[in-house]
Amino acid sequence: MEFEIVIGLEIHAQLKTESKIFCGCSTKFGSPPNTNTCPVCLGLPGVLPVLNKKVVEYSIKMGLATNSTINRFNQFARKNYFYPDLPKGYQTSQFDLPIVEHGEVEIEVDGTTKRIGITRMHMEEDAGKLMHDERDPVSYVDLNRTGTPLLEIVSEPDMRSPEEAYAYLKKIHAILRYLDICDGNMQEGSFRCDANISLRPWGQKEFGTRTELKNMNSFRNVQNALEYEVRRQRDLLLDGEKVVQETLLWNPDTNRTESMRGKEDAHDYRYFPCPDLVPIEISDAWVEEIKKTLPELPDDRKARFISQYELPDYDAVILTSDRELADYFESSLIPGATPKKVSNWIMTELLRELKGESIETCKVAPTQLGGLIAMIDKGTISGKIAKTVFFEMMASGKDPEVIVKEKNLVQVSDEGELMAIVEEIVAANPEQAEDFRNGKTKLMGYFVGQLMQRTKGKANPKLANDLFNKALNG
Amino acid sequence: MKITVEEVLHVAHLARLNLNEEELVKMTGQLDTILSYVDKLSELDTTGIEPTTHAHNSVNAFREDGVVTSLPREESLANAPEENGEMFKVPRII
Q: Is there a contact between A28 and A36 (Cβ–Cβ < 8 Å)?
């Protein structure tokens, strides 16, 4: 039997504010435990939370960037549940009146474009952090994160493969980063993702029983976990067994999803409007004002890269998937550095050498990379030498011109100078020269290699071929 | 009856309250009285009246994004039944 995969994602994006959502405590990551807390976020009785305006602004921004409806009237609600990382006994969130609804983004998988719907986005506060004792049956609570502003972004169940889920996640991540409203760090938890996934026989209208996947703290993990869960559910269904609706944790060490033991009761959150926070009314003028601050977004930038720089679709997608990378590319385009060549260098050499680190940590300034590529285009150095220069640049951050000069790497294109060496080589290898003349033209590689050895790789390779042809065939 | 013993037990569990038999009966009775009283409100004709969730009409009570000094940690932890000087200590929850 063939199954159709149905996936929906819930993303929690930590909004990049200085202070928490309802109090002035710092949102700084990595502070000593419980040093960024106050009566409001500790949930002490008698306090009054006051909403951070920036949280509303950022949420509107994200709504506008995803063609969503901004709900002009929205309000907070209390989601009641008991857990030690939630000192108030409820999470202040939004329920029936969220700030954003009915949006969409475009994703591209294997050259096909698809729209993924966004059901809603709502503002809420984060909970604290629990640490479990290895030996004693106790847990420790750090409430620094309590009250950190989150935007929860809920997709429609529109994704039909783990690849599509991955592409959607990447797209939301890119938009948040372009808007500069979330730092997007999955390891530090400022960008988190839960997934709902179910399978149904092809053609069936109703959804199958879904499971919810948690604890996927990297893009790769999200795709791996979903792929694993597809296999697990498919095996169950093919064996005539039932999928149990439950929450599963992804274990990246065993590469499996695992059932959460002792799962809380069926959700019974008893939502009600939060009496401490007055509703939010968003005027058209406010929305217009925020609209004016929207930067060029990933899709627009991609389209521009294709038309303005004549880049292939593939290059444009990769370069614009990350705002900093796209900025880096554009800053590298100094006169003499052709866009496609710069793109090639960034996508192969640079990204490989960065080994997954952010482009912002790169020692090579964009204009330096542009300078290096301009030197190749001008014929000052060969492509091969350029790689040597590039590694040196990555290590020292020096200008390519300086490295080329210091190491005397300028390409030798002087015909007279090279011909003298070529003739020496031919004279020193009479047998190979004879074979070459008798049609063993493959030996050209051998001769050019000799020349490169003698010139330490600096001979202009095109000229080298010409000169050997001349010297050998007269 | 506006509320059953089972419902009270359920809500008590969600709130992590342990009620003995006597308390359970007492609470059910009291809650029933409260709910009956509140139910009186539904006798009012509210046709054409916009539902409201807050007692007054104000909206948009915002603060600008800015950090103010947090509590000293000793004070944050002062009311904790158990702590280790850095963190709150609670029974283990998975």
A: yes
Overall domain count for chain B: 1
At position A4, the amino acid (one-letter code) is: E
Model confidence at A412, pLDDT cuts 50, 70, 90, reads confident
Assess contact for A59 and A99: CB atoms under 8 A.
Answer: yes
Cα diameter, chain B = 57
Its ipTM equals 0.87
Nearest to B76 among A42, A140, A275 (CB): A42
Nearest CA in chain A to B92: A138
Architecture of domain A415-473: Orthogonal Bundle (1.10)
Query: Which range marks the domain in which residue B20 is found?
Result: 5-41
Residues of B with Cβ-Cβ distance to A268 under 8 angstroms: 10, 14
Q: Find the closest chain B residue to A265 by CA distance.
A: B14
> C-alpha B86: how far from its chain's center?
28
The CATH number of the domain where B19 resides is what? 1.10.20.60
Q: Is residue B46 situated within a structural domain?
A: no
Instruction: Return left, alpha or beta for B39; rule: phi > 0 is left, psi -120 to 50 is alpha, else beta.
Output: alpha
pLDDT digits (tens, 9 = 90+) for A424-443: 888 888 888 888 888 888 88
In angstroms, the CA B62 to CA B70 distance is 19
Question: Helices marked H in A355-399 — which ranges?
Answer: 366-378, 383-396
